[in-house]
Amino acid sequence: MTGSRRYPARPILAASAAVFREGRVLLARRARGPGKTLFSLPGGGVEIGERLEAAALRELAEETGVRAEVVGFNTHVEFIERDSDGRVSAHFVIASFVARWLAGDGATGPEVQEILWADPWRLDQLPMTANLATIVRRAAGIVGLGAV
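Structure (tokenized):
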């Protein structure tokens, strides 16, 4: 994380996508902070003039090489990280979407150190960002894989 994203003056708007393929969800292990080494949904910052859904799909493609189509909105996520002095070092408000896979198996890169197509009901043993299991299970319900 660089520049104005570290110790921001205000929350940063971001978007992510829970992408489903054959009953599994795409997870990305972060190669950079915040959340470094933890699994999360692919996503990132919204650019000026960019719609939230478009940002989620762009970030998905940039981070993992996967293409998908958005099928609905899931929830919003608030990520706040504080340093050892209690100062806010990162603050993101993330619009989290649900999507169906179109193409690509997923690839690692500068922002992602590992790709995993996971069973949405068996995430509890993974090192993951806060509330990821709840967010993924809710998304799974939206695509018809279980209760919302």
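The first strand starts at residue 12 and ends at 21. The chain is about 15% helix and 40% strand.
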